[in-house]
Specification:
Shape of chain B: globular
Number of strands of chain B: 11
Helix content of chain B: under 10%
Number of strands of chain A: 11
Radius of gyration of chain A: 13 Å
Oligomer: heterodimer
Distance between the termini of chain B: 41 Å
Largest sheet of chain A: 7 strands, mixed
Strand content of chain A: over 45%
Radius of gyration of chain B: 13 Å
Helix content of chain A: under 10%
Chain lengths: 112, 110
């Protein structure tokens, strides 16, 4: 299995508070992704990174920001959490070869 | 635009065969993935097709028809542990993003 960890695994927070989710990989893969998964919507891309300090928006990026200062770490920040951001968040990595993606275990975030 | 369609839910009987379909619309084509996702877990890779035809891997097979924009995942000798969601995905033109279907929830009954 690809070495991907996410922290925290579960978090409950209140509306308006900042939240940062961390994805850490030990595979030295170039590409990293943040998805959210909600019933009926499948996986939706929030942001992705194609290298250190190289990031771009996905289809549902509003209200989220990301940073990648090292190859192994990709941070997702909710500047001011809202109840609509209650979801399961998955990090994924890829080396780009046929774009096969490997997923972390996920973070379940609840915003009250 | 680019789009993927899959049935929302399917039910099958233990020991039987089930076929999960996926249709896609993309401006280019760089292969098609199938992933399995058990409830509460992360998606895991099942198969990848880039050429037309059937790829067999044990009890699971995946078929692709590029001219029809169609794929299916065939699961044989169903076991209770096959109860999961099955996700179809295709690379975007940029080839480092994937477009995901909403997934097909497969329920296996004894």
């Amino acid at each position: 299995d690809a070495g991907i960890t996410q922290s925290p695994r579960h978090k409950v927070t209140e509306t308006g508070t900042p939240v940062t989710l961390r994805c850490h990989q030990t595979e030295n893969h170039r590409y990293m992704y943040w998805y959210r998964q909600d019933p009926g919507h499948g996986l939706r891309l929030i942001h992705y990174s194609y290298g250190v300090k190289d990031t771009d928006k996905g289809e549902v990026s509003d209200g989220y920001s990301v940073s990648r200062s090292k190859t192994e770490d990709f941070l997702l920040t909710l500047e001011s959490a809202t109840s609509s951001q209650t979801s399961v968040y998955f990090c994924a990595i890829s080396e780009g070869v046929r774009n096969e993606q490997f997923f972390g275990p996920g973070t379940r975030l609840t915003v009250l | 635009g680019q789009n993927i369609d899959q049935p929302t839910e399917m039910t099958a009987t233990e020991g039987a065969i089930v076929q999960i379909n996926c249709t896609y619309q993309t401006s280019g084509f760089n292969g098609l993935f199938w992933y399995q996702q058990h409830a509460g877990e992360a998606p895991t890779f099942l198969s990848y097709n880039v050429l037309d035809g059937l790829e067999e891997k044990g009890r699971f097979s995946s078929f692709l028809s590029r001219s029809k924009g169609y794929s299916y995942l065939l699961l044989k000798e169903l076991q209770m542990k096959d109860s999961a969601s099955y996700l179809c995905a295709v690379p975007m033109d940029s080839n480092y993003q994937l477009i995901w279907g909403a997934g097909t929830k497969l329920i296996i009954k004894p």
